C-alpha cells in the first residue's frame, strides 16, 4: 500500500538541467509508465524516486512523507534494471534472498518467500544456478523475483525488457502486467517503447527533453495529445504534420496534425491535399501508403490490408474528417479547434 | 575467432623469437643451470678448486638454524608486505573509485612510487627514519618514542616492510581500481536498494567480484616480496640487526658474495626457486578454482 507524489521535481547535473519540474500524484496500486525518447530524462526521474540520484529541487513523497534525504535502502522500494544487475557470483536463490538476509528475515521465511516467488515466475528449477547459466528471459525473471520477494511499497522498472528479443518482450510485458495487477504494488515503469507504454500503463507520463509534456491514461493521450511532440511520439505510424498553409481552413501559422489511420485516399482533385504514391508497405492486416505531396511534404495513410494498394507513382488525393484534424501553435502546444 | 598469423617458411619466425630466447637463455637458463651445478660443490677457501659434495650443501643448509630462521623471516616478511601493500592499495582504490572528478590526478600521483627503484626507495625511507637525522624518528623522539631500527629487530622489520610495500601500493592500486570500475554500477545500486550499506556491499558484493584481481595480485606480490625486495633490505638494514631482516634472497647474496661460500649460496638459490615455484602452483591449484564466478 503506497502512494507516491512528485512535486515540481527538478534535476541538474552541474549546469545542465535535465528534469525541468515534474508533478504527479500516484495513487496506491497504480501502474505509471514514463515514456519518451532516449536521453529525455526518464531514468533520471526514476532514479530520483529510488534515491540513486539526489534531488536538485522539489520533493519526492512516498506515503505522504518526504524522502528526499532518505537513502535508497530506507525507502522500501525495489528496482528492476535494464541489464538486470544480478549478483554474478551468487546463485539465483541467493540473488533473490539477498535483501531478506540483510533484513535479518528468519531463514524459514526466506526459503518460503523465495520459493513462492520462484513458483510464480517459473524459476523453481533454476534456483541453484548462477546468473551466467540462464537465458536472457530467465535473468529478467530473476530480477523480477528479487524485487517481489521483498514485498516493497513501490516497484521501479528501468527499461526491463529492452534487452530481450521481440517475441519474449511481448510475453514478459503481459506477465509484468498480470503480476502487478495481482500484487497490487504501485509501480513506475520507464520505457522508450510506446507500445509497452500503451499496453502497461494505467496512466503514462510522456517526457520530452526533461518536461512531462502530458500525463494521462493511454487512450486519452492517444486521442487527445496536448503537444505536437506527444502527437508524433504516441501512435504508430507517427502523426503526419503539415504547415497550415497547405490545408484550407486551418488557422494561419499553426501546424496541422493528422493521424495516418484517420486519413483515406481518394481520387485526385477530391482530397484536402494532393500527392503521388512513393511506395506502399503491405503488412497483411494493414497497408501503409507513403505519399509525396505536391508541396513536397511526406504523408502516410494507413488503410485496411484488404483494400487494394495504389501503385507507385499513382496520383491521388487525401481526405480526413475535420474533427480528426489537430492544430499546434508555434510553441508546439495544442490549439483547441472551435 | 582467434587471429592467427601464418608464416611461410621458418626463417622469419625464428628471427622474431630469437632475441627473447637468447635473453632468457643467457640471463635465466644459463645462471640457473650454473646454480644447480655449483650447488653440488664446495670451493676451497681461495676459490681455486672445488670439491664435489653431491647434496652435501643442501643437507648442511637444512640443518642450519640460521638458514631455517631465514625461512621464518621470509614468511613473516612476505606476508606482511603482501597484506600491507594489498590492503593499502585496496583502501585507496575504493576511495578513488568513489570520486567522479579528479580520479585521474590521484591515479597519476599514486603511480609515481612504482617508478622509484627499490634501492632508491630504501634510501628514501632510511633517511626519514635515520636514528640521528631522520625526520620521522625526530618527531617520534619528540613524542617520547625512541626509534632505533639499527638495534631493534621489530622496528627494522617494520621499516623494510613499509619501504617494500610502498612502491607496490601503486601497482596494486591500478589493478584494484580497474577491477572496481569493471563492476557494473547497477549491481552496486541494486545491492543498495536491497538494503546493503557500504560495508555490507563491500563484503558481500565488491570484494567477491574483485577476487580474480586480488588473486592475481597475491601471486605477483608474493613473488615480489621473495625476490625484488633485495635492494630495499640491502640499503636499509643489510639483513640486520642479528639477521632479523635476512630473507632468503638476501642470504643468497650475503653467503655467496660476502661470505664467499658459493656452493651454499647456489644451493640456496635452487631451494628458493623451488619454493616460489611450489607456492605459485599451490596458489593456482587451491585459490584459482574458487575465484571464478
Ligand atoms: N550522471 C550524469 N551526469 C551528467 N549528465 C547525466 C548523468 N546522467 C544522465 N545525464 C544526462 O541526463 C540526460 C537524461 O538522461 P537519462 O535520464 O539517462 O535519459 P533516458 O533514461 O531518458 O534515456 C541525458 O542527456 C544524459 O546525458
Ligand atoms: Mg534510461
Automatic annotation (TrEMBL), chain A:
<protein>
    <submittedName>
        <fullName>Sn-glycerol-3-phosphate ABC transporter ATP-binding protein UgpC</fullName>
    </submittedName>
</protein>
<dbReference type="InterPro" id="IPR013611">
    <property type="entry name" value="Transp-assoc_OB_typ2"/>
</dbReference>
<keyword id="KW-0997">Cell inner membrane</keyword>
<keyword id="KW-1003">Cell membrane</keyword>
<comment type="similarity">
    <text>Belongs to the ABC transporter superfamily.</text>
</comment>
<dbReference type="GO" id="GO:0005524">
    <property type="term" value="F:ATP binding"/>
</dbReference>
<keyword id="KW-0067">ATP-binding</keyword>
<dbReference type="InterPro" id="IPR017871">
    <property type="entry name" value="ABC_transporter-like_CS"/>
</dbReference>
<dbReference type="InterPro" id="IPR047641">
    <property type="entry name" value="ABC_transpr_MalK/UgpC-like"/>
</dbReference>
<dbReference type="InterPro" id="IPR027417">
    <property type="entry name" value="P-loop_NTPase"/>
</dbReference>
<dbReference type="InterPro" id="IPR003593">
    <property type="entry name" value="AAA+_ATPase"/>
</dbReference>
<feature type="domain" description="ABC transporter">
    <location>
        <begin position="4"/>
        <end position="234"/>
    </location>
</feature>
<dbReference type="InterPro" id="IPR008995">
    <property type="entry name" value="Mo/tungstate-bd_C_term_dom"/>
</dbReference>
<dbReference type="Pfam" id="PF00005">
    <property type="entry name" value="ABC_tran"/>
</dbReference>
<keyword id="KW-0547">Nucleotide-binding</keyword>
<dbReference type="InterPro" id="IPR015855">
    <property type="entry name" value="ABC_transpr_MalK-like"/>
</dbReference>
<keyword id="KW-0813">Transport</keyword>
<dbReference type="Pfam" id="PF08402">
    <property type="entry name" value="TOBE_2"/>
</dbReference>
<dbReference type="InterPro" id="IPR003439">
    <property type="entry name" value="ABC_transporter-like_ATP-bd"/>
</dbReference>
<keyword id="KW-1278">Translocase</keyword>
<keyword id="KW-0762">Sugar transport</keyword>
<keyword id="KW-0472">Membrane</keyword>
From TrEMBL, chain B:
<dbReference type="InterPro" id="IPR000515">
    <property type="entry name" value="MetI-like"/>
</dbReference>
<feature type="transmembrane region" description="Helical">
    <location>
        <begin position="205"/>
        <end position="227"/>
    </location>
</feature>
<dbReference type="Pfam" id="PF00528">
    <property type="entry name" value="BPD_transp_1"/>
</dbReference>
<keyword id="KW-0997">Cell inner membrane</keyword>
<comment type="function">
    <text>Part of the ABC transporter complex UgpBAEC involved in sn-glycerol-3-phosphate (G3P) import. Probably responsible for the translocation of the substrate across the membrane.</text>
</comment>
<dbReference type="InterPro" id="IPR035906">
    <property type="entry name" value="MetI-like_sf"/>
</dbReference>
<keyword id="KW-0813">Transport</keyword>
<protein>
    <recommendedName>
        <fullName>sn-glycerol-3-phosphate transport system permease protein UgpA</fullName>
    </recommendedName>
</protein>
<keyword id="KW-0812">Transmembrane</keyword>
<comment type="subunit">
    <text>The complex is composed of two ATP-binding proteins (UgpC), two transmembrane proteins (UgpA and UgpE) and a solute-binding protein (UgpB).</text>
</comment>
<comment type="similarity">
    <text>Belongs to the binding-protein-dependent transport system permease family.</text>
</comment>
<feature type="transmembrane region" description="Helical">
    <location>
        <begin position="173"/>
        <end position="193"/>
    </location>
</feature>
<keyword id="KW-0472">Membrane</keyword>
<keyword id="KW-1003">Cell membrane</keyword>
<feature type="transmembrane region" description="Helical">
    <location>
        <begin position="69"/>
        <end position="96"/>
    </location>
</feature>
<keyword id="KW-1133">Transmembrane helix</keyword>
<feature type="transmembrane region" description="Helical">
    <location>
        <begin position="108"/>
        <end position="128"/>
    </location>
</feature>
<dbReference type="InterPro" id="IPR050809">
    <property type="entry name" value="UgpAE/MalFG_permease"/>
</dbReference>
<feature type="transmembrane region" description="Helical">
    <location>
        <begin position="9"/>
        <end position="30"/>
    </location>
</feature>
<feature type="domain" description="ABC transmembrane type-1">
    <location>
        <begin position="71"/>
        <end position="283"/>
    </location>
</feature>
<feature type="transmembrane region" description="Helical">
    <location>
        <begin position="266"/>
        <end position="287"/>
    </location>
</feature>
